[in-house]
Amino acid sequence: MEDPRRKEEEKEKPLQHATPRHGRQKGDAFLVRSLRFGREDCREAARVPAVWPKLCFGVIMASPPSRPAPTVPTVDLSPFLAGTAAGGGGAAEAARDAATRAIAAALQTTGFFRVVNHGVPAELMDRAVELSRDFFRRPYEEKLRSGPVEGSGAPVPVGYARQPESLPDKNEYLMLCPPETGFNIYPADPPQFREVLEKLYKELAKLASLVEDIVSGCMGLPPNFLRDYNGNRISDYLVAMRYFPVIKAGSGGGGGGEDTGLRAHMDGNVLTFVFQDDVAGLEVLDGDGGEWIQVSPEKGTIVVNVGDILQVMSNNRYKSALHRVVPRPVDRHSYAFFRTFDGGSWVEPLPQFTAAAGEKPQYKGFFYGEYLQHRMRNKTHPPARPEDEIDISHYAI
Ligand SMILES: O=C(O)CCC(=O)C(=O)O
Ligand SMILES: [Fe+2]
Q: How far, in Å, from the CA of 151 to the mean position of ligand 2?
């Protein structure tokens, strides 16, 4: 029998040319909510120059820009890992420099890159995906037993949930946070859930610290700058294990739009690390050409993307990547590790990117917890008009 996933892969060839997906969607409207600030601000905030006229004024571009298809670069992290062949010497230093340059370029273009030889054991990643399949295929009532506990004091609703019916986003997720907080509600079955995930957090936290150090270097900051900025290790990350059920063609989402996996959005944190099963669907908007680029699954790799905090701290030098999960003909599972800050952290453009660079701050400062609350409210109490959801442009000057 033909594998339906292969069919999907065949369909999903590079998106150099305008396709219906590039047309205006409900999710796009949500993304460019900064329209209210005017065309230039919106363009700057969402970094979608070529797609912008289409989104805002319904102008259809006859042909795509003629330039090479943008790609998501793959960066080999082995030169940074102790005990690897490339651990020392001039060649290793050159390899580290090359990897750093590749990351620096990605931070300023799509805000997306993949990492390989990242140190997170492949069998642990595979195990997490298996557990996710096992958990999400269970009856809703059973999954709800891992639902958030009212008044737990957790910074976000930790536990199992599915997106509100009124939203076109069709996914279920299990939200988790560092185990030291005591907020996590692990499913009792499958029984290995907790053990596997707790091992995985540790590995991903190591990877996140390494990548943060590289990114700090790219920003001209001391290597441990981002890590130390959030002095509170127990609010270093959040995790979302997501299940995207098949979306039947023509199924209308909330508010009259089409159903989708996840509407185009920017992550509200520092950096996000994603791995998944072998089903495509993740796409990122290219900052220059306005093309949606597929981030196809590649076994063993981890996809990294920039979030809003880095965009603010770098005063828009780095792009909080605009990305989405499009409908797929088969179920999909992914695991996202959001490196984040404690709610009490003050976020603002850093002087290195403002006064020292002779540039005005593009954002006013805010406590991270306040922004997190706005983002959570978008989910728990979605406004009637998607453009009223609060995103980082709320703090734009
Ligand atoms: O499922 C994915 O590939 C990405 C998920 C995502 O963008 C998110 O959880 O914010
Ligand atoms: Fe995301």
A: 26
Query: Which pair of structure tokens corresponds to residue 73?
Result: 């670069």
3-class DSSP assignment, residue 269:
coil
Give the pLDDT confidence of 54-107 residue by residue, as tens digits: 222 222 233 344 556 678 999 999 999 976 555 567 888 899 999 999 999 999
Interval between CA 270 and ligand 1 midpoint (Å): 14
Tell me if 26 is assigned to some domain.
yes
Ligand closest to 328 (CA) is 1
Instruction: Specify the number of domains making up the chain.
Output: 2
Say if ligand 1 is within 6 A of residue 325 CB: yes
The ipTM, to two decimals, is 0.99
276: enclosing H helix or E strand = strand 271-276
Q: Do residues 138 and 105 lie in contact, with contact meaning Cβ atoms separated by under 8 Å?
A: no
SS3 at position 343: coil
pLDDT tens, residue by residue, 229-273 = 987 888 899 999 999 999 876 666 555 568 899 999 999 999 999
**What is the CATH classification number for the domain harbouring 344?**
2.60.120.330
7, part of any domain: no
Residue 276 CB less than 6 A away from ligand 1: yes
Distance 266 CA to ligand 2 centre (A): 6
The CA-atom distances, in angstroms, between 175 and each of 28, 146, 271 are: 25, 10, 17
CB 246 within 8 A of CB 328: yes
Q: Ligand 1 pocket, 262 CB below 6 A?
A: yes
Q: What are the tokens at 338?
A: 């959001």
